[in-house]
Design goal:
Blueprint: E1 2-7, E2 23-30, E3 33-40, E4 45-48, E5 56-58, H1 63-75, H2 79-88, H3 93-99, E6 120-121, E7 126-127, H4 133-137, E8 142-146, H5 149-163, E9 185-188, E10 191-195, H6 200-216, E11 223-232, E12 240-247, E13 254-259, E14 262-267, H7 272-280, E15 290-297, H8 317-330, E16 332-336, H9 339-348, E17 352-362, H10 373-398, H11 414-426
Parallel strand pairs: 8-10, 8-11, 11-17, 12-15, 15-16
Antiparallel strand pairs: 1-3, 2-3, 4-5, 6-7, 9-10, 11-16, 12-17, 13-14
Helix pairs in contact: 2-3, 5-10, 6-9
Length: 428
């Protein structure tokens, strides 16, 4: 087997010696280095390789070549890799291979990112060339997200007190993504608190960039949690709901996306063990119920959720109630607007994830949220309390409950830092 190692940011490299051999090119990307391997098969010609751009190949590969590459890839796994795969997904080691490096750090399912000189996360006002992302975020264990900037700023202060982290004297929490003017992000030691906006598109954009952020920061085995509000189906307001399965408006357990003119369905799967663990952290002393169940995601707050009080309505009260009863019979206990894409993208990335929401009303009893503001504010704290119990449990097990120490500047290039700010402001 011939192995050629190409360091990142080299100007160019063209391989000609391989042409004499009938071989197929496979790639295995690790942090900072691209390894190219050739395996003997029926036919393959490498026409050129340029570091920092897309790899171009001219190859006529038969099925035998596919099988040989897969067998060789499987043979590279060592005991540590197998153990790590078991930690990520006991039932799907192939998913672990696709989404994790041997040390547990996040691996992207997109080889193009490794070849880029700089990856600008426009909507977070961060960049891999302008910021030392590993220094800034390498210790992250939990990524918590919710709809509004104010809610997630409040959660950041709450979790800071809960886990006992102290900011250096004379400092305060800062919105890391303030220059994006889209999302707000706060970091409290190993916890990120981020607003995701409202609805599937907003959450999708954020998740793409957050997963890439985890990759650039070499974060190991993060847990993503969505903290939100919802409407209950036969569930009283103030009830905490932990999502077991996510469904769309047609009751499909998947997220539908059009890619290059073709419909793609990605399974909307959440970590069952995490669901059980969260449920076990609810106590009898809590003055409210914490339940698990199916959650339905819609693309709309009004017609998509069967509300009669939108600007448009072409169905009757009877139609609405029949639909809501159908949902309840199916096992749906709440409706919101983000669960399918959140579950699908985290699952596709191999990231453990959970959704915890509080109901603001029982939709079987009405459409309008009538609870007083102070009551709703208290209700919205309930999922946060449950998440804080999860975070404290895990940090205690890892021995990470300690005071937050000051960190050195994470700006690698002031010039590129300014460029990233300007790029983010330009993409409105």
């Amino acid at each position: 087997m011939l192995c050629i190692k190409i360091l990142r940011h080299k100007a160019a490299l063209v391989i000609e010696a391989i042409k004499a051999t009938e071989s197929i090119l496979a790639s295995d990307i690790v942090h900072g280095t691209l390894y190219l391997f050739t395996y003997k098969c029926q036919s393959s010609v490498v026409s050129g390789i340029k570091a920092g751009s897309v790899l171009y190949f001219e190859k006529n590969m038969a099925q035998q070549g596919d099988q040989m590459r897969e067998n060789s890839s499987n043979s590279k796994r060592d005991k540590n890799d197998t153990h790590r795969a078991a930690e990520i997904d006991d039932d799907n080691p192939e998913m672990a291979r696709l989404t994790r490096y041997n040390d547990g750090s996040v691996k992207l399912r997109n080889p193009n990112i490794e070849l880029m000189d700089q990856d600008i996360l426009y909507h977070l006002a961060l960049g891999s060339g302008s910021h030392d992302l590993h220094e800034m975020f390498g210790d992250v264990k939990f990524v918590c997200m919710g709809g509004t900037p104010k809610r997630m700023e409040t959660f950041a202060h709450f979790i800071m007190e809960e886990i006992g982290y102290k900011l250096p004297a004379g400092t305060q929490l800062q919105d890391i993504s303030a220059f994006s003017y889209r999302y707000s992000m706060y970091k409290v030691g190993p916890v990120l608190s981020i607003s995701h906006g409202m609805g599937v598109p907003s959450v999708g954009i954020l998740l793409h960039e957050l997963i890439k952020l985890m990759y650039h920061a070499k974060v190991k085995d993060p847990i993503f949690v969505r903290i939100g509000t919802c409407g209950g189906i036969g569930v009283e307001g103030g009830t905490v709901v932990i999502t077991e399965d996510a469904y769309d408006g047609l009751l499909r357990n998947s997220y539908e996306l059009a890619i290059l003119g073709k419909i793609v369905h990605r399974p909307a799967i959440l970590d069952k063990r995490l669901v059980r663990e969260l449920k076990s952290l609810a106590t009898h002393d809590d003055p409210y119920d914490t339940i698990t169940g199916k959650t339905m995601c819609t693309y709309d707050f009004y017609e998509g959720q069967g509300r009669l009080d939108g600007a448009f309505c072409e169905f009757t009260e009877t139609d609405k109630m029949a639909y809501l009863e159908k949902l309840r019979d199916f096992g749906v206990v709440n409706i919101e607007m983000e669960c399918t894409i959140f579950a699908a993208l985290t699952h596709y990335a191999g990231i453990k994830a959970a959704i915890i929401c509080v109901t603001l009303l029982d939709r079987l009893k009405g459409d309008q949220v009538m609870a007083p503001k102070e009551v709703m504010n208290e209700w919205q704290q309930r999922p946060q309390i449950l998440v804080s119990r999860l975070i404290k449990k895990h940090l205690a097990q890892m021995g990470h409950l300690k005071s937050l120490a000051s960190t050195p500047s994470s700006i690698k290039s002031p010039r590129r830092f300014k460029l990233v700010q300007q790029e983010s402001e330009a993409h409105e």
